[in-house]
């Protein structure tokens, strides 16, 4: 190697548009987890993805569009898969099992995506044109309300559409504010999750009229 070669800039390997977008999404997820929407910058995301900010904006129209793709879409896809895998059951025993499964899956989902959910809470506005940051969340609520409605004979005390949202809020708040709510030594995570599941299911059962 001669001296001239040593001074040549190192060129990045050529990547496909799909690979660049994938790297940007992975980098964005980490930045949004760590810094929230406001704190994450497109420059930092581009550096972490080993690309340029100009390339980032060729792949995504805006920071909000990247946030939508990196944070909202994975959560939407998760909910879509759950809805597809758990159709509304027809018999009462299966409906009871499905209700408990909904709560257990929701707890796992919230725990697994806690950092991204926090990022969404801090994001404020970038929810996309639909106005709903997790597009499939509406379908998830509809599915949960359908399960509850199928178990209710007569007029429910509380609209199942409201009940399923209250259940989601209880599980979400229990996870996100766990350190505030439970002093050290009161209970382990499994006991807390079991208590919340029983609390939510008791509310659902009491709503059967």
TrEMBL record:
SUPFAM superfamilies hit by this protein: Homeodomain-like
Organism whose genome encodes this protein: Sphingobium yanoikuyae (Sphingomonas yanoikuyae)
Protein name: TetR family transcriptional regulator
Keyword rRNA-binding in annotation: no
GO molecular-function terms, A-Z: DNA-binding transcription factor activity; transcription cis-regulatory region binding
DNA-binding residue intervals: 41-60
Domain HTH tetR-type, chain residue ranges per copy: 18-78
UniProt entry keywords in alphabetical sequence: DNA-binding, Transcription, Transcription regulation
Cited InterPro entries: Homeodomain-like_sf, HTH-type_TetR-like_transc_reg, HTH_TetR
Gene3D superfamilies for this protein: Homeodomain-like (1.10.10.60), Tetracycline Repressor, domain 2 (1.10.357.10)
């Amino acid at each position: 190697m001669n001296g001239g070669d040593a001074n040549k800039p190192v060129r990045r390997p050529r990547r496909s548009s799909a690979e660049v977008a994938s790297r940007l999404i992975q980098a964005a997820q980490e930045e949004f987890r760590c810094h929230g929407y406001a704190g994450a910058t497109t420059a930092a995301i581009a550096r972490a993805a080993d690309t340029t900010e100009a390339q980032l904006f060729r792949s995504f129209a805006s920071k909000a569009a990247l946030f939508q793709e990196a944070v909202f879409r994975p959560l939407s896809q998760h909910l879509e898969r759950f809805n597809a895998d758990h159709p509304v059951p027809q018999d009462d025993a299966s409906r009871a099992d499905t209700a408990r499964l909904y709560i257990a899956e929701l707890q796992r989902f919230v725990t697994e995506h806690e950092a991204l959910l926090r990022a969404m809470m801090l994001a404020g506005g970038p929810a996309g044109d639909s106005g709903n940051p997790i597009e499939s969340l509406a379908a998830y609520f509809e599915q949960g309300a359908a399960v509850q409605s199928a178990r209710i004979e007569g007029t429910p005390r509380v609209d199942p559409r409201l009940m399923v949202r209250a259940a989601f809020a209880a599980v979400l708040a229990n996870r996100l504010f766990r350190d505030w709510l439970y002093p050290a030594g009161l209970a382990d995570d499994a006991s807390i999750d079991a208590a919340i599941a029983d609390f939510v299911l008791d509310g659902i059962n009491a709503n059967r009229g």
